[in-house]
Design brief:
Layout: E1 19-20, E2 24-26, E3 29-35, E4 42-45, H1 47-53, H2 62-73, H3 79-91, E5 120-122, H4 127-138, H5 144-163, H6 165-177, H7 179-206, E6 211-219, E7 222-229, H8 238-265, H9 270-288, H10 297-306, H11 311-323, H12 334-367
Antiparallel strand pairs: 1-3, 2-3, 3-4, 5-6, 6-7
């Protein structure tokens, strides 16, 4: 049997706008994320289904697709398999010429509801267009040479601040003892957070992503800005996805550059002390965003670097099995075992760094005259 007889000449095609991610680790398995064009519905498929979906271009027949599948996986699909696959795709509204369908139970909708009573509100009607205008203003800085130069500058600034860490810690303690300074520093750091979210939007636009929303979200008394990128997991390369996720923390550090210069030039006294406190808390804010725990940016960066989805859940499950010497841990392929172990080490390291910074600050507060 060379191909399903009644389907051999059929040329199925995915609906325009359907997105399929690269292979991602999920526990011991490998999966691909699929995003439907209507409603932002996202679900998972296996490598075999993804192999066929990415080739449903309307040019190749089922017979040709079956040959490619047999060459890749060593077996040919029967007619029943093809009918089941096409029925599944058609039922989810993913085939061209078929109807779009509402979200099925268990499928994740990307966009939560907005509104004052829901704790969030959009700030702009067209977030993608707003990100485009901002992108045009800063696009020269995102070219490779200026971007590398900025990263070198930030690395140097961070090294200088780390060398003066005791002074920065004392400055932070002074800020906490002065309510006026504390409000001023908190306001500056809130503005840095807003720039952080806009940086995600601009970088996503630069790398071909679509910005879905820019708005405010609150859990009183905390009010923060937020940005969503609709197709983030489907951007063309892992490097671009990491760049989008890391843009916020980089912007937090860039925000501190003029304050660092001011602090270095300022004479001893209250101004220099206040700037030291701002710099300590600002760097702490930036690096806190890089902690690899959901929903922080660091978690997204590490997930992308390791090529995994639901990394925290999978790592916790695997490490629990490994520590108990459960034979089920061996079901994870070597790549998964390495990824989940590396993630666990990243979490421990980040926790140790943040705990150390917290201990230094508390000690400065308790020992200050």
């Amino acid at each position: 049997m060379t191909a399903p007889g009644s389907l051999a000449g059929l040329r199925p095609r995915l609906r325009p706008g359907v997105l399929v991610s690269e292979p991602l680790l999920l526990g011991p398995r490998t999966v691909h994320l699929v995003r439907a064009p209507e409603g932002g519905r996202t679900f998972e498929v296996g490598p075999r289904e993804a192999f066929l979906m990415t080739r449903l271009d309307g040019a190749r027949t089922v017979e040709e697709l079956g040959g490619a599948y047999a060459e890749a996986f060593g077996r040919r699909l029967g007619e029943a398999n093809w009918r089941q696959l096409l029925a599944l795709l058609g039922g989810r509204g993913l085939l061209a010429g078929g109807p779009a369908t509402p979200a099925a139970p268990g499928e994740a909708a990307e966009k939560p509801g907005n509104g004052v009573l829901r704790g969030s509100v959009r700030l702009v009607a067209d977030a993608h267009a707003t990100a485009g205008r901002l992108h045009r203003a800063v696009r020269p800085l995102l070219a490779p040479v200026p971007a590398v130069a900025l990263l070198v500058l930030l690395t140097g600034m961070t090294a200088v601040l780390a060398w003066h860490l005791p002074e920065l810690v004392d400055g932070a303690a002074a800020v906490f003892r002065n309510p006026v300074l504390l409000v001023a520093v908190a306001t500056a750091l809130w503005f840095s957070t807003a720039l952080h979210e806009l940086a995600h939007a601009v970088t996503a636009r630069h790398h071909g992503g679509r910005v879905g929303e820019i708005g405010l979200r609150w859990r009183l008394p905390v009010v923060i800005m937020y940005c969503t990128v609709d197709d983030y997991p489907f951007l063309p390369s892992r490097r671009r996805r990491i760049a989008v996720a890391g843009a916020g923390a980089v912007t937090n550090l860039l925000f501190l550059v003029p304050f660092s210069a001011w602090w270095l030039l300022a004479p001893e006294g209250g101004t220099r002390e206040a700037l030291a406190g701002l710099l300590f808390l600002g760097v702490l804010q930036a690096f806190a965003m890089l902690v690899p725990l959901p929903p922080l940016d660091g978690y997204t960066i590490v997930s992308q670097a390791l090529g995994a989805t639901r990394l925290a859940t999978s790592s916790r499950a695997y490490l629990g099995l490994a520590l108990r010497r459960d034979p089920a841990a061996a079901a994870h392929p070597p790549r998964a075992r390495r990824a989940y172990t590396v993630y666990g080490l990243c979490v421990v390291l980040a926790a140790a760094v943040l705990l150390g910074a917290f201990v230094l600050l508390v000690d400065a507060l308790l020992t200050a005259p």
